[in-house]
Amino acid sequence: MKPFTKEEQDVIGAAITRAEKTTSGEIVVVVARASSSYGYFALMCVALLALAVPLPFIHFTKWPIEYVYLIQLFIFAAGAVLVQWEPLRIAITPAALKRARAHRRAVEQFLVQNLHTTKGHTGVLIYVSAAERYAEVIADEGIYRKVASDVWDDLIAALTAQIGKGTRKEGFVTAIETCGKILAEHFPPGAADRNELPNHLIVLNAAGPA
Description:
The protein has a 4-stranded mixed β-sheet with strand order 3-2-1-4, sandwiched between helices. It contains 9 helices and 4 strands, in the order H-E-H-H-H-H-H-E-E-H-H-H-E. It is of the alpha/beta class and 210 residues long. The radius of gyration is 23 Å and the shape is elongated. A hairpin with a 4-residue loop joins strand 2 (123-129) and strand 3 (134-139).
């Protein structure tokens, strides 16, 4: 994921501000480089490969066990070095695990960004994890009581399509505007409304836990 420019961040922040003027809800946008390092899974794969190495040598050769053991050590060491390359770790990780890790970090960010503390429980998180090519909307209980979860599907589909085309700035702006319209329909602004959370793009450059 290439870094967001200041212009991109300013445009996205301005879109959040505009959308929140039409509703009492709060919108937070978080983009993560990766939701997990997947280090444990990658090392487990390397260990399993190294454990399997002796089998063909034991059954089909008469090599001394010491040679086989050295090959096994070499395979594990080489594999451990190779999986330090993040794209490889991402590539060998099953899609289901990547989705689970990305969803877990999205939930964590919902709590970390204090969306669960908003007045009326009307906080919405738009979460994107670049390495997993994953996007999700998490809304607080006040919204879920009025807005069905599948309402957000079109928003996510449009956002991921724009990111895939290389027009991520436009994708985020459209997603924020759509989110604002959905919230405004059920949660119009009140006279005593105040901006409870920051109106800017939050970028997480560090990967999540392994």
